[in-house]
Request: fold
Amino acid sequence: MGTHRHPGSLRGGDSTDGNPQEGEALQGGTVDPSTRRKVYLATAAAALGGLLFGFDTSVINGAVNSIQKTFSLDPAVLGFTVAITLLGCAVGAWFAGQLADVWGRKPVMVLAACLFVASSIGSGFAFADWDLMAWRVIGGLAIGIASVIAPAYIGEIAPARLRGALSSLQQLAITVGIFLALLSDASLARGAGGAGGQLWWGVPAWRWMLLVGVIPAVVYGVLSLRIPESPQYLIRAGRKDEALEVIRRVTGAANPKQRLADIQESIEDERHSTYRDLRGPALGLAPILWIGIGMAAFQQLVGINAIFYYSTTLWQSVGFSQQDSFTTSVITASINVALTFVAIFFVDRVGRKRLLLAGSVGMFVGLVAAAISFAQATGSGTSIALPAPWGAIALAGANLFVVCFAATWGPVMWVVLGEVFPNKMRGLALGVAAAFNWIFNFLVTLLFPIMSAAVGLGFVYAGFAFFAALSFWFVKALLPEVSRLELDDKTKLDKR
Reply:
């Protein structure tokens, strides 16, 4: 079966050959500037899959209230309508690796782009809730495919010394996609006088919010056709001469033939891994796999996607005007983008574990501030308000949380999952951990509106704060630091 892969190859073949000269070459040694540009451009083009990942998961934010009114949905059905995309994500991610190994990375990227286009058009013209759900599942398939192929391709192109930073570009692209989705929502709502107002040809603004996703999807498809194929796929397909040419022209390897030989050896080593390799004494699974599952779960249990999927509705519910709610959501998304650069800068300098610990502390403080603030709310349902100064404190707390998440857990968790597993189980273990990430994403997204209506936002944010506190102790006690290890250093990784 295909697996949901992040930094690294799709079936466990390592994305770096452990040759230190490769990194030195790319940073200005023996490789000319045009070659350095090629690896960066190929990385950026592939990362557009992450941009669509963020765009399509967040664009529904501004349309939630209008969808609820248009189709007369109760909170449970609304939550399922928003969250159902994530079920499609899990399916798409699961099969993406298999498709990419059969067809190649580029054709699967193009497939994802086509699914994105179809989902955007179908969702924009949905005539019933079940119809909207169906198109959102198709969009989820595209997101799942893109979430696997983009970081896998980047990992297969990236040189060793830049692996952390270039792999983090996937998360940066996701945050840019979230920002563009919320900015687009805000602009369309402003132009129509509200998300339910009519724009061009009498089509409501909330439908245009969903239709506009066609634009980045088409760009992604066109650029996917222009980037080189992954060397790992070309080698598996028996096209070694083409693989050598890509290694020579794009990756900047100091010794292309040695890089080719190392990739071949790595693929041979990993070809026969099975689910038996995941077994261990801890409830039937290897302890390191439980660590990966825990990391994937905590990234979602702190509530980041509840904020980005429901932020406009959230701020309206506590007294912000619709326009102010859209503006606040865009500001939050801007912070998310800016702080991702912090992770890219520090991930290879400070270390993964230190960044994650600092992020857990900051997220906890921000979530506690938001929880206390929302506990002061008056009213009920969607007609509640925060008395002064609690509205400002809630906003500050939520943005502090986003700052700390974006600079740490957002990108670093995926970098860690790409490094922490031993070579023999890496491909399958990444698939399992990523599946749990999608599952917890789905559960948080589905339950947020239900729990908010049942117990109030104060308790919901307190629950997120609880998981942020647990994430600190989880990382401190269990997570090994692998920042300085090469992916194919089997002896060191297997001891973890």
